[in-house]
Fold:
Amino acid sequence: MEMVSQPSVIPVPAQKKRATKRERWSWYMYDFGNSAYAAVVLLAVYSAYFKQTVVGGAEGSRLWGLSVGIAMLVVAVTSPVLGALADYSATKKKVLFFFTSMAVVFTALLFFVQKGDVLTGMVFFILAEIGYRNAQVFYNALLPEIAGEDEIGRISGNGWAIGSFGGIVCLVIVLALIMFVGGSFVIRLSFLITAVFFALATLPVFLNVKERAIPRSLPKGENYITFSFRRLARTVRVAWKNREFMKFLGSFLVFNHGIIITLDFAAIIGAVLFGLTQTQLIIFMMIVQVTSVIGAFLFGRVTDRLGGKVALMISLVMMTLTVSALFVIPSVFWFYVVGAFAGFSLTGVQSVSRTMVGEYTSEDTSAEYFSLFSTTGLVASFIGPTIFGFVTLAATRAFNASGMELIPAEQAGTRAATIVIIAFLVLGLIALSFISNEKKVKVKSQPVDEI
Structure:
């Protein structure tokens, strides 16, 4: 029979004190900053710069995919353990600061990456991406601490909207430099600008947001490494008992493949189907960011009024119809229109998904649950893009072998591969329909040795 230690007594306040307006705006500003990183480094500038200038040719695409995969693997392994550690020691802000600093420093170092600096370009990006992704776990985990149950959807949506606006502001700065100055130096300078933008926007969360979780001492005979793994295993077992949460994670695992593919390949799809230039690509991403602001605000309020499940299903249906439009749109203009609808619905999916995790958790388990949520999303980062890339290549070769010229064959293959995105979205939507809001429960933290 396993020995059970006496659980520590944790004082619980009679009533949770609501966060101040300053705290909430400080939390929003973090999203404002890290969205600039996503817009410039991941979506619009560095990915293309690395592929075309640092490496060149198809090898650039392969090494870019490898870099993303390595970063995702590291985050997938580390974030659940770090989440358990942060919850038990109440150090969300400290760990958030560490990974934010890591992301900012290595984003700035991308300025020094030039043509031929392949290894340096990969290493700096991988470290920046690890910092960015791990920081998101702890930023998200602060949501239940600053929002009550009756306002979590609105506050989460506000964060996404203000974050999207941050991406727009940074892209406008970068676009102006590229259009009026131009050159490789300006592109490299954009990474330094993004790092400074990111750093300044995140300062308020560290200065103004109070972490409300109460720290607890480690069980006797434990260290943080062994305890974190035991805590992680306990979290999985506890979460497994929360069947509606696990159903949600299962549906999220499926439909998020479609979301990740759309994000990772939006630029490639635009370039292959419509020949978008770097300037056109930045404009496209700005359109996506603008409609993301509208979508985040709207779906935050739909969530509070109709519930997370209904809001998420609406956004998934819209996303499915948007991707399906790629089969029929004839020009760059209509690709911009599709991008506008994609930004609106895609942000709804992401924002509402984050809100639903917050609805299932409590303050002292939020980092753990958000870590499981993040890890589930990271699985999609491996599988979805790999399948999409394989289908695109296979379809392109098949069309080319049938007598079609290489460029039309690649266009046809890319369109054919969008069926993969649609399939993931539809299957995830079906899985989501089985979730019962009436059975939603919050599982409180329990001492490791009691499980």
